[in-house]
Amino acid sequence: MNEATDDATDHAEIGRKLFAGEAGFIWATASLGGLPPMEGLEIAFAGRSNVGKSSLVNALTGRKALARTSNTPGRTQELNFFRIGPEDGAPRRLTLVDMPGYGYAAVGKEKVAAWTDLIHAYLRGRANLARVYVLIDARHGIKPIDAGVLDLLDKAAVSYQIVLTKTDALSRAELDKRLAATAAALAKRAAAFPVILPTSSRTGEGMSELREAVARLMDERGAL
Asked: Considering all CA atoms of the chain, what is the largest pairwise distance in Å, rounded to the nearest integer?
């Protein structure tokens, strides 16, 4: 039964309950051939190394160590799959994918190329991928390497939404300026969802809005 309505409050509560429920690691792969079967709805989190992906996944689910975090950029070297929701196949279950950070040059060029190829192949070929949340460090904005990933998503017609991370490092005026600049950069991108989500894993800012956005997406895709 679809219990969601068009009311934003309902989606906020559904999102809160969803991410407060069961969550666990189910799969990891460093190769396209090792991907799990496509079952149900998937959302993925992508971003430059050290943008705070793992910290955001932990904050989103209210867990301290669901995703591994490290002060060393590039530690996430695989596609890591997490099941959010009950294991019995009931509604309100989705798969969250923590993708390898891209663009970290301190590891070997061959390693970077392998990670990049894996990311690109996954984004192009995952039919049940509902949306990619592209994390951008609010202190720096969209860099050329980020723009390259957005180009790929546009060409592949994969829906994506920008999540600004580490917003606690900016003043309100600085954040407003970054939001405006990011919106302008996305204006002509066909696959970009227009709402930008400012977040801070440290303070919890924006987590309820991100949970709500995921719940609304699931509702739109008939996954509630």
From this structure: 50
- Pairing mode, strands 94-98 and 129-137: unpaired
pTM: 0.88
Q: What is the mean pLDDT of the chain?
A: 86
* Cα-based distances in Å from 174 to 134, 138, 139, 142: 20, 9, 9, 15
CA distance 57 to 98: 8
Helix-helix angle 109-125:144-156, to 10 degrees: 30
The residue to which tokens 């666990």 are assigned = 24
Q: Nearest 5°: phi and psi at 128?
A: -95, 10
Strand order in the sheet with 129-137: 23-29, 79-84, 94-98, 41-47, 129-137, 160-165, 197-198
Q: Residues 162, 136: contact at Cβ < 8 Å?
A: yes
Helix (H, G, I), strand (E, B) or coil at 53: helix
Reported confidence tier of residue 49, pLDDT bands at 50, 70, 90: confident
Q: Cβ of 88: how many Cβ atoms within 10 Å?
A: 6
Indicate the pairing of strand 129-137 with strand 160-165: parallel
**Residue 33 DSSP label:** G
**Where along the chain do its domains lie?**
11-221
DSSP for 151-214 reads: HHHHHHT--EEEEEE-GGGS-HHHHHHHHHHHHHHHTT-TTB-S--EE--TTT-TTHHHHHHHH
* Fold annotation for 11-221: Rossmann fold (3.40.50)
